[in-house]
Amino acid sequence: MSSHPFSSFAREFKGEPADLIPVLQRVQAVEGYLTQDSVRRISRWLRISENEIFGVATFFAQFRFTRPGEHCLKVCLGTACHVKGGEQILDVLTRRLEVQPGEATADGKYQLERVACLGCCALAPVVALDEKIYGQTSVLRIHGILEERQNRERA
Amino acid sequence: MRGLEAHRSRATQAWGELQSNARPLIYVGAGSCGLAAGAAEVLEAIEGHLAEKKYAADILKVGCIGPCYLEPLVDVQMPGNPRISYSNVTPVLARGLLDSFFEGEEIPRRRLVGHFGQDGFQGAPKFFDHPMLARQVRVVLRNCGIIDPDNVDHYLARDGYKALEKCLSLPWRDVLEIVKNSGLRGRGGAGFPTWRKWLVCRETESDRRCLICNADEGDPGAFMNRSLIEGDPHAVLEGMLIAAYTIGAGDGTIYIRAEYPLAIKRLRTAIARMRELGLLGDRILGSDFSFDLKIKEGAGAFVCGEETALIASIEGRRGMPRTRPPFPAVEGLWGKPTIINNVETLGSIPQIVRNGAEWFSQYGTETSKGTKTFSLVGKVRRTGLIEVPLGTTLRTVIFDVGGGLAKGFKAVQTGGPSGGCLGEEFLDSPIDYEALAAAGSIMGSGGIIVLDKNTCIVDTAKYFLNFTQAESCGKCVPCRVGTRHLVAILERISKGKGEISDLARLEQLSRAIKGGSLCGLGQTAPNPVLTALKYFRGEFLAHIVEKRCPAAVCRDLVVYRIIKEKCTGCQRCVQVCPTGAITGPRAEAHNLDMAKCIKCRSCYEICRFDAVAGDAIVIEPGA
């Protein structure tokens, strides 16, 4: 038998259909997103049709089917962030980065995402850049956050 | 029974030494909210400064103690002093604090919140006398902000796992009796009596039963469960063990949002410690009870908070609800009897067992017993995580605990997307399951979002419907299609293109969705619209008839204007305007061309906070 399609982490799973969602999460963590090819390989491994896999994967907000940007910029649009102007922060970023939520910038640097709630409502409006969460942002402060990051990368 | 005595006595001794002030101790609030406010940088500064100045001190990273608006919180406990808390600490301030404590005589006063001692201390107030904390009763949150959540010894030293030990020596019926007498009802929102659900599950014949902890905290604007897991994971895990023992479950699952990485990390650490202590696996603590658990990360679907949808997603399928009965307590995960309890429900259990049912039920009202955690957010002055006895009035929570609003109160939103907006006339009604339901809202998992005069009710209703519309799983037509139409009508109204007949249409459609949907999502989705229409009809009419948004929020209606008399011509707004809508030479009042304006708010904010004049740009209701 040829080597396992996911030899690096196959042993973490039993390889049964119930593993589907955790496997999709693992594949996405390693490969960044779900490709046609990876879905095909999962299908053969877990013995679930590709159709069914796409059915499950498209149901959940977490799964992506296009290559994400290098850094993920999440704008929180939970209730608290909404009433404090989160929507307008998203607008500013859509214009500045020239992308729609769910897309990556042309240079592949940033992925813009809208999220339902990051759970830091007391610090609304909140924006997360990769793992770092910024509280009490504004349509103006958001530029500073991006510029600070760019300067740090240049340095 | 092989107990934890030896380990606990070591842990108690170590905790006692830590608290006895032999060495200076520094507490840093390092929950997600603290980190968002900059606790990581502060921690780095403290560590660096301690090393540089050769100050000897221990650092304790604790969870969230509640007043998020004061984050980052840093507390210093010097030998001979009680723990003293400081708010909104920056790296610079942190270094200064350390210098004052290690070299000064008097305690620093700047940003002082209070001390944790019993008696007065150098004239400083007590921490728990702080207006945000004074009215609170910390039952579930007792350890949050007090212990290091990654250190099981701290939990053990504070009577952790004693409730489990007690339960293991009792027959399951006795444990159930305690939970029954406590009056505990599900904290996820529906408020079903916990004991009754457990009994149904236990009495269903089966070779296997399952326990699921629902940590898929999906309500936007709610973060109680995240804070509890981040601040005191073992409380929830001990609750799971007790629940599993009572219902006779052999395996457990914690279903948690992937958006909560820190909480997941804390759980993983806690579970590893439990294994070392023999609190998981075969014959726990030498008893006949065996139990093991694993973590499942939710993949992002609000509907998975619904029990049968959650089960479907654990089984690897699309998270769609099914008809009930059979209820999961009879036929759940893999067809086996399954109990799904909310994080807070489980987190309350150890305290109930340890202190007795009567102790717990002394708090609350006739039908809603105990305390409840809430995330108090929105336009209130003091935002954060709170815990109050059920039956406390909304007024107490918003004005005493939350310190009121900077601008006038308009409404309070409870229950997230399934709840409603309640106006001033409900401020004196108690927060309990029945009273909120009677008003057309629900208790929900505990989000309390305060709205002021600058929040538009139409916009808020539209926001929630947009959310439920996107999260509807699509199984029931009234929910899938109906919510889309609700959004479309609200969209129209917020653009000033609504008709009077739209209001009746909204109500009719809402009733159809409520009646024709299988699960809680659809049955409650119209609540935000219905309560808004019932209590704030005038605001809908203003949008429809007068074509204006009284709160100056709805973008298609509002108008931006420069007050010529106030404008000093500092040009800050000209610089930030992305479309070149603002023009004018320096030192002369500027002009705003509404034809070019995209209402991005940048000029408004820069004028507000950063310009010479301040508040020379206003947003008006329109028409």
Number of strands of chain B: 18
Largest interface: A-B, 46 and 62 residues
**% residues in beta strands of chain A:** 5-15%
Q: Kindly report how far apart the N and C termini of chain A lie.
A: 49 Å
What is the terminal separation of chain B in angstroms? 76 Å
- Read across the widest sheet of chain A, the strand sequence of neighbours is 2-1-3-4
Which regions of chain B are unreliable across 5 or more consecutive residues at pLDDT < 50? none
Strand order of the largest sheet of chain B: 2-1-3-4-5
Per DSSP E runs of 2 or more residues, the count of β-strands of chain A stands at 4
Instruction: Count helical runs of chain A.
Output: 6
- Helix percentage range of chain B: 25-40%
Strand content of chain B: 5-15%
The quaternary structure here is heterodimer
Structural class of chain A: alpha+beta
> Roughly how much helix do the residues of chain A carry, as a percent range?
40-55%
SSE series of chain A: HHHEHHEEEH
Number of helices of chain B: 25
Structure, explained:
The complex is a heterodimer of chains A (155) and B (623). With 155 residues, chain A is of the alpha+beta class. Chain A has six helices and four strands. In chain A, 41% of the residues lie in helices and 12% in strands. Chain A has a four-stranded mixed sheet with strand order 2-1-3-4, covered by helices on one side. In chain A, helix 1 (20-31) runs antiparallel to helix 2 (36-46). With 623 residues, chain B is α/β, with parallel strands linked by helices. In chain B, the strands form five sheets. Chain B has a five-stranded mixed sheet, with helices on one face. In chain B, strands 11-10-14-12-13 form a five-stranded mixed sheet. Classes of the chains: A alpha+beta (155), B alpha/beta (623). At the A-B interface, helix 1, helix 3, helix 4 and helix 5 of A face helix 2, strand 10, strand 14, helix 18 and helix 25 of B.
